[in-house]
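agent: user wants the structure for 4-hydroxy-tetrahydrodipicolinate synthase from Streptomyces collinus. delegating to structure tool.
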Amino acid sequence: MTNRRTPFGRTLCAMITPFTGAGALDLEGAGRLAARLVAAGCDGLVLNGTTGESPTTTDAEKADLVRAVREAVGDGVPLVAGVGSADTRHTAGLALAAGKAGADGVLVVTPYYSRPPQEAVAAHFREVADASELPVMLYDIPGRTGTRIEPETMIRLAAHPRIVAVKDCSYDFLGTQKVLAETELAYYAGCDEHLLALYAVGAAGCVSTVANAVPGHVAAVLDAFDAADTARAAELQSRLVPLIEATTGADLPGTVTVKALLGGLGLPAGPVRAPLLPAGREAAEKLRARYETLVGGA
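agent: tool returned. relaying tokens verbatim.
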């Protein structure tokens, strides 16, 4: 659809960060995984986000990951680097480092734990946007941060020339539609179950966790909608639901479930870092079974 604003592409994957068996950063594996995702349907990647275990990777590892993935996928694939932290100065510094490493944009989450009021939230995002030349994707995920980016705050922030997009995990469909109606912000569904619904009301695309395993299936939902085959798009979304439920609707974090699934498929993944623990056998088997059912019925 030519009227959609897609500053970072349409089908983005919230890529895991592969580690070696010993827990070190696996840059070679990250490059292979990124290349596979792009070849299979992703036209953009989000690195160092929640699914990328950003709370437990160092600043140097974050920059190294961006450089390795940039080398693997070339210059034509948008890379958005997660730079969020609870410290505005630290976040601004991470944004500068991401740009030097080769990122095309930055993903900035609401400051967590301190629970700042909305004026402080807005000031945080503006300061980070002013610190770097990179365009900014706001990350609204109050279930993890404890603080919303309220729709009115989004509308005010849209006036900043470098704040261009939102990764939406707010579970506030009405609020999202209000911001879409009143701004030019490019919305990306951050929850896979909202992929088609948000796209249908004007979102730019998605930042998908389940795309780590089935990038082509995620892209196909949006392809069908763009081809005006809404029945097919709904059918494809429905087929994804069991795997989405097992990946992000379970009691385990998406990082844990995705790494269990990819590891079982022989793809770069490795262990999770503490305090996360690996998925148990039962969860891993359920993931693999639902993956096989989806892929077998494609």
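agent: one observation worth passing along. Residues 230-248 form the longest helix (19 residues).
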